[in-house]
Amino acid sequence: MAYVSAVMAHPAFTTRFSPDLVRPGLRVPVTADVKLFAEAVALGNEVVWLHCHGERFSDPAASRPKHPPRLLKESGPTIPAGGTIPSAPEPLPDTMDYDPATRRLKVGKGYIDNVTPEMWAYEVSGKRVLWQWFSYRRLDRSPLDDIQPKGWPPEYTTDLLDLLHVLGRLIALEPAQADLLNRICAGPLRGAEELREAGAFTTEQEKSASPKGKEKKKA
Question: In this model, does residue 219 exceed pLDDT 60?
Fold first, then answer.
C-alpha cells in the first residue's frame, strides 16, 4: 500500500500515464531495485499517514505522530484576529472564495490566511478537495442534510485547518514523488508474469487451498 501510494498518488503519475488512464484498471510500475523499493515504501508511509490525517501509519520515530499532521508554524494556515468564521446564531456560510494575491481563503464572513494557490486548486479524481469539503457544510445543501447544524460549529473550523495542513504537506511531497517515479521507470521493472509466477497475486486463502498449502498445514 505504501509503495503504491508513493508511486501513484501525485499529479506526475497522472501526467505521465494520462493516455493509459482512459482505460479502466491502474497499472503500477514495480521496480526491481530493492533499495528503490524501500525508498518508495518509506515515502509512501508518509503519504498514507497524511491521507489518514495521522490515524494510520503513525510512527513517532519517523516524525509521524498519531495526531493531525502540521506544517511548520510559519508556513501553515492561520486565522488572524477578525477572521473567525461566525457560529450560530449566524447562519451557515454559503460562499467560499480565494484571493491568490493575499493567499486568503474566505469562508462566509470569516477567513484563513497562508493558504497557497496549490492548496486551493488541489484535486483528487478531478474534484477540488476544498470545495468538495465545503459543499457538505454550506448553507445551500440538499434537503436531506437538514439534520446538519444551523450554524458553523467550531469543529468545522478545526477540520478545515487540519485539511489545509494535510494538503500543504502532500503538495510538498510531490517533487520527491515525481523524481522517484522517474527513477523507477528508468530502471529495471518487474513484469506482471514474473510477479504472478512468484505468487505475488495469490491471496492467503488461495495459498491455503493449494496442494502445497495443505501439505504445509499437515506438517
Answer: no
